[in-house]
């Protein structure tokens, strides 16, 4: 032990003196580390810097913003509810004139372990709401739930949990829970509709009184399903199960509105269940539906919710998963619907980490990091088609640049740092710490204004935004702090800690769970009658067990679409109309990787007197680091204000230290790929073996297979030259169909197909897709239909248009 400590001291000493004069040290703090060594001292330094930023903004809010909802960071005046125009929804949905910044930021103080400030803010909250939330404000139910109800519940958990640094003990009266309950009681009437789905807005004092039809006729899936999470927590803490039951009924009902592909359209009339927008995806309007299905399943140990998550996630992967992001698709057909993705979807990799899909989370997060490196923030919407104008010239006019970002603002949303935090916790790869440092530096330089933080009004011009939304203090800075605070008490908590969609940590102790089981009650007659009536209208049918019928139970046949690397507008238009757009030659990590855990001491050994550093695995072994730059080179165009900026991963000190010198980039594929879709009645069940093979015993559900056309001399999606040997000694003769080559001779074709992806799951190089001959066909007619689409040769390979698919086997 001693020996190791001495070695560390020597190391530290060396690093402090080894750098040249320009290397980034922090003399003002007297810290002893070299930048990007990421030792504990350095992480502590970043943690403290993040804390300083939080206090800077929090102090300013208290002095110049409170008791109003927000403080404007540039003009230093409160941003209030628009009292003059009650119909100004954009402002008034969130700003209920209820000091929302104060309430939403309570748990950031708790996470930072600042007991004295936490206690005084709890006192301030108590003093601010002597009449609870008896305020004449019409607000959005969802936003108010996640910011106010969630913020109060989580702060209450901290205040009452003796294992936490900010535990308030006897001095705390339970006031936060009372306030949360008061707010929930004011919001809950929004669920009293014929369907049981909530209307989006309600007046805190007089319920529906001043509300016009325009304010309540449309609600989205996230807003209808998500309050279940905070409200179920509230039931656990109060023993009153009405909160859980009413909101869970609405979640069930929302899920029942899904299409036969198990995809949820985003927008409905909550009073009738009529669908307004058929688009499905993972971004705005739907994001926290997935989030809370999984998080609720974990926190409440709820298998039904887990089933919803699994079905929803697998439908997404089949229909909406592209290589670097999820696209928005039509919920009944799975067809591509928009050519943009939105910034809110950047949360999804964090959720994938929670689901155990770290591999794909890394890919999806990579795109967000490229957006950040290009625009300096994440545009609210980004168009992935690219600019055709770039074919003719080498730079874009301002207007052309603007067209790449259909919505141009970036209000310092937290989703990128949130995913970065989860990925760091899962991989311990310094790649993610480095991103955190880049975000921290942007906050310190670009986004810090006189009185707080403001993002970009327009990422293409760098024009700042004079607004500090509450999530900057409650989420963005909290996740950044937690990224650097590796020893935070949350990281070693005994109970399952789950972050709400507003980053409020939630947990249940065994004692609370047991109390609730034995003491829960549901005696509020209004809501009892309401649920009873809703269930009666459902006709006793368990609507959430909706069965897929697949258009009368017939095989739909298949759709087939080709796609190309060069995505000019015509081609995208064509693929949009065909329904399946995609891109040529992309694949996931060829081999699942395992990551070492708990590696905080990065330097591993010292041979010949020099420290040997572990490498960042991503920087050194992920051979697709620059694929996005190449693939989207006509849309990831740096605006003027970003010209001088170096991408985070290429910053000198970081790259030099953490990249292995032999790191290679995979060459761009020159093959073409296309996808086929097969729809059959029943559910889709895939079995993935550890070596990457995918096996199926049944054919039901939707099967989407990506095929690569391989020819000698081309480079395949795995970055390899296609091996000419695989073209020899193949059989073309179809066992079932006479129309292919009539002579069953061995032949050497010029082109073959290879399956590279099924339902969003990548097949690694060498892996196969196998169907169980004895079980896949349920009826003779099903087999006949299948045989009409695919041929089969003597090697059990299925054939498409008489071309063998070399790794798609029916055996
Ligand atoms: C809004 O809040 C402020 C500060 O608490 C209060 O003085 C004012 O009366 C409120 N306005 C309305 C319309 O409720
Ligand atoms: C819920 O029930 C438990 C067990 O009886 C009790 O200790 C707790 O105080 C109750 N909570 C509330 C808010 O009434
Ligand atoms: C929601 O659906 C699940 C699964 O079908 C069911 O067990 C549960 O009782 C439903 N909850 C409510 C409140 O209707
Ligand atoms: C509902 O039940 C709880 C717990 O048993 C009780 O404290 C409360 O007074 C009851 N409320 C009504 C309206 O009966
Ligand atoms: C994008 O990449 C392609 C292929 O490497 C290249 O031909 C084209 O010039 C690039 N376009 C831009 C705008 O950089
Ligand atoms: C194929 O199905 C049969 C019948 O259910 C089963 O015995 C066999 O194990 C399956 N084969 C594979 C490879 O799963």
UniProtKB/TrEMBL annotation:
Annotated EC: 3.2.1.-
Gene Ontology biological-process annotations: carbohydrate metabolic process; endoplasmic reticulum mannose trimming; ERAD pathway
Named cofactor requirement(s): Ca(2+)
Entry binding sites for Ca(2+): 501
EC main group: hydrolase
Signal peptide as annotated in the record: 1-18
GO terms under cellular component: endoplasmic reticulum quality control compartment; membrane
Compartment(s): Endoplasmic reticulum
Entry similarity comment: Belongs to the glycosyl hydrolase 47 family.
Name of this chain's protein: alpha-1,2-Mannosidase
């Amino acid at each position: 032990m001693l020996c190791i400590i001495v070695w560390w001291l020597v190391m530290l000493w060396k690093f402090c003196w080894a750098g040249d004069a320009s290397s980034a040290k922090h003399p003002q703090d007297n810290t002893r580390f070299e930048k990007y060594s990421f030792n504990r001292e350095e992480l502590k330094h970043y943690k403290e810097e993040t804390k300083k930023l939080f206090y800077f903004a929090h102090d300013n809010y208290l002095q110049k913003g409170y008791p109003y909802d927000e403080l404007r960071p540039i003009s230093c005046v409160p941003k209030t509810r628009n009292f003059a125009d009650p119909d100004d929804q954009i402002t008034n949905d969130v700003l209920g004139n209820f000091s929302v910044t104060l309430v939403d930021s309570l748990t950031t103080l708790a996470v930072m372990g600042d007991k004295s400030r936490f206690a005084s803010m709890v006192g301030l909250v108590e003093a601010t709401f002597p009449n609870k939330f008896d305020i004449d404000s019409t607000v959005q139910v969802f936003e108010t739930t996640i910011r106010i109800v969630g913020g109060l519940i989580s702060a209450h958990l901290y205040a009452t949990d003796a294992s936490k640094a900010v535990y308030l003990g006897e001095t705390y009266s339970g006031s936060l829970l009372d306030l949360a309950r008061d707010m929930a009681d004011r919001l809950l009437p929004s669920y009293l509709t014929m369907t049981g789905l909530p209307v989006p807005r309600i007046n805190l004092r007089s319920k529906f009184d001043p509300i016009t039809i325009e304010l309540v006729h449309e609600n989205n899936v996230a807003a209808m399903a998500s309050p279940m999470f905070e409200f179920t927590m509230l039931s656990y803490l109060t023993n009153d199960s009405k909160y859980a039951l009413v909101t869970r009924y609405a979640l069930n009902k929302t899920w029942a509105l899904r299409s036969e592909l198990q995809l949820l359209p985003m927008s409905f009339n909550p009073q009738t269940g009529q669908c307004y927008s058929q688009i499905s995806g993972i971004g705005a309007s739907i994001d926290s539906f997935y989030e809370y299905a999984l998080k609720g399943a974990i926190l409440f140990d709820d298998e039904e919710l887990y089933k919803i998550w699994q079905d929803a996630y697998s439908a997404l992967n089949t229909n909406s998963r592209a290589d670097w992001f999820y696209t928005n698709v039509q919920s009944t057909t799975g067809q591509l619907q928009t050519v943009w993705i939105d910034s809110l979807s950047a949360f999804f990799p964090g959720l994938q980490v929670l689901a155990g899909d770290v591999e794909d989370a890394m890919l999806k997060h990579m795109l967000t990091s490229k957006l950040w490196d290009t625009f300096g923030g994440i545009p609210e919407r980004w168009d992935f088609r690219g600019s055709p104008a770039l074919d003719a010239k080498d730079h874009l006019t301002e207007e052309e640049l603007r067209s790449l970002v259909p919505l141009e603002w970036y209000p310092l949303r937290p989703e990128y740092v949130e995913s970065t935090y989860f990925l760091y916790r899962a991989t311990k790869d310094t790649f993610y710490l480095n991103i955190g440092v880049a975000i921290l530096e942007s906050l310190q330089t670009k986004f810090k204004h006189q009185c707080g933080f403001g993002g970009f009004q327009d990422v293409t011009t760098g024009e700042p935004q004079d607004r500090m939304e509450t999530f900057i203090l409650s989420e963005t800075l909290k996740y950044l702090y937690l990224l650097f605070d590796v020893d935070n008490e949350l990281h070693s908590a005994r109970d399952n800690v789950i972050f709400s969609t507003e980053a409020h940590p939630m947990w249940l102790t065994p004692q609370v769970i047991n109390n609730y089981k034995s003491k829960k009650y549901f005696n509020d007659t209004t809501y009892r009658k309401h649920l009873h009536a809703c269930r009666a209208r459902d006709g006793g049918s368990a609507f959430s067990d909706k069965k897929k019928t697949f258009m009368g139970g017939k095989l739909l046949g298949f759709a087939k679409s080709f796609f190309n690397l060069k995505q000019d507008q015509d081609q995208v238009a064509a693929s949009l109309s065909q329904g399946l757009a995609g891109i040529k030659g992309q694949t996931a990590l060829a081999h699942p990787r395992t990551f070492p855990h708990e590696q905080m001491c990065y330097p591993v050994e010292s041979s010949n007197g020099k420290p040997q550093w572990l490498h960042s695995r991503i920087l050194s072994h992920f051979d697709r680091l620059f694929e996005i730059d190449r693939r989207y080179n006509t849309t990831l165009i740096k605006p003027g204000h970003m010209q001088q900026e170096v991408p985070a991963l290429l910053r000198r000190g970081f790259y030099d230290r953490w990249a292995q010198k032999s790191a290679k980039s995979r060459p761009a594929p020159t093959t073409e790929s296309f996808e086929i879709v097969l729809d059959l009645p029943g559910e889709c069940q895939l079995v993935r073996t550890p070596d990457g093979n995918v096996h199926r015993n049944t054919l039901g559900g939707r099967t989407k297979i990506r095929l690569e056309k391989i020819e000698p001399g081309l480079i395949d999606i795995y970055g390899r030259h296609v091996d000419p040997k695989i073209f020899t000694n193949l059989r073309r003769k179809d066992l079932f169909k006479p129309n292919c080559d009539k002579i069953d001779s061995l032949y050497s074709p010029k082109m073959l197909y290879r399956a590279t992806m099924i339902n969003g799951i990548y097949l690694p190089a060498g892996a196969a897709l196998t169907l169980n001959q004895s079980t896949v066909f349920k009826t003779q007619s099903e087999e006949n239909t299948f045989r009409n689409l695919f041929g089969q040769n003597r090697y059990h390979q299925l054939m498409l248009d008489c071309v063998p698919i070399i790794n798609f086997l029916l055996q």
